[in-house]
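input
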Amino acid sequence: MANINRPSWQFVTQCAICFLWTSCIFSLVTFLIIWGCFPGPSAACRPDNTFSPFADSYNWWSPNGFFEVTLKGGSLTFGQAKLVDVSWDLIIGRGGQALIVYVSWVTFRKYTAISAQRAPLTLSGFHESFIEPEPPVFRVFTFLRNLKLYNQLYPRCVKVFIAFTLVLTAVFPTIASAATGYTPKFQAYVQELHGNAFIKFSDFEIAVYEILDSSRLKIQGVGNDWTVNYAQLLKSAAEPLISRQDNMLSRSVLRPINIDRDSRCELQFIVDEYVGKYGLRRAGNTSSTFGSKGCARIWNGRSPDGPILTPPLPLHLDPPTLDIETYYLGQDEDNVLLYPPDSSQDASFRSYTRNRSVVFTSGDQTYGLHDIIERGRCQMISDQYQWGFSYIQLFLFSLFLFFWTIGIILVWLKAEINLPLSHYLREVPEGWQCILHMAKTVENELKMVDASPTPQMTDRQLRDLVKQKLDGGEISFGADLEYEEIVGLRQWAWSWCKREPGWTAALLCHIAVFFTMVLLLMLWKRLWFFLVISWVGSLALLLVMLLKLPDLWLIIWGVSWIAIGIELVRVLITRQGYQ
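output
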């Protein structure tokens, strides 16, 4: 077990590559699962090109989307979309197939070599495993049929995994190609209430308040009724979508504590503060103050929405308070953008917590939710295409890769911890070494049965002679070499844990922190920096363990992870990830 006790740089590099590859595949599978359950940013034109103002109305697991391109993006010409699609088929489809074949073939050869110490291998199996110069890309099904030659050599689980690998190798380009495609790009429009023209849905806003006596504010260009819209703080959200599950708004933030000072002076938040103090519908016959001194610098005589305000903030109004109606405040004050202070105890707010009270605005026109649903359309944009994946097929594709990755790592690790084969054979035999070993074995066995091949015999005649006289023949690496018992993965892992209790505890803690962080980061989506840090930390721990560096490096690694954990907790508590 020299490769584990005194790891070479080649072995360390292989471990690092295995870790990075496994982390990427695991993160992809986790991301797709969470995306299917808690979708990320969406559009009014759903993946099936139907219109809906609800951000979470599409079922990503629907069988109808199996052959549709549902996870797509970009704005490409036809030529660009075709180029991307062909490049994917060549690089990922054919290149991925070649990579799987090469890695699997090298790993299975190593495993066959250590297994051949315990049980003899047929001459045909030896020839396929060690003398063939190239991986058997075109002999997949032949190799699958010949698995019966390895009945004594491989455990059942390994034979099943080899069969799975060979089938995956054969169908990999087809799966990779079928999971992708390109479709025309669609844009969401809404038909006008009084006319046949269509308005881009991205030009709509969601109303939150109606100030029925706004003339008291002395705002130039504003009549007696002034509609106040939700502040558009999330610029990445192109359309005013609403969540059906928790009634959150796509263009808004969840909690006002993360809003910067300038954004707090948006008109919506000024009215929020006013309603929180004085209530709705002229609730009090008292003097009131509209706005605060802190926003005077931001407004400077002009609101962010355009109307000119004179005199500047704050405005002191005579009794009664402003006559303000509200349209939509969401469902749960713990999840919604912003409730006015102390509104949770005010029954007057409760009738505005259902999404049927949502009102959209475009110019001077207001549209109810029913109008938007009825008049909304998805129209094709001329000469623009999007490229992407079928979500379900991409998930299955990633899942197959994940299973193959775990299986090939286990087989490779078992082979590595049992190499070299003996004190005399330091590496897996190949090439000329195998030819000499096989020729010597065949010659000796034929002499034992009084069979004498001649140089004039063809390859088929020699093969038939070996099959008839030797019944396929047998060859192994343990016949004339010092035999060493094969070490199992569980046996090796248990002995390592007993020998390195400190590293075992650190590794278990790290695995728990790593997977917890991956799940949290997928849910909060914006903290990818910490995911990269977790990958780097995991790789650093792996290298420190393999290279057996001093314990000081373990202390440095632990302190770094504690600092990262504290920062992550701080960010999650303050909900910076929602911005």
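quick obs: The longest helix spans residues 78-115.
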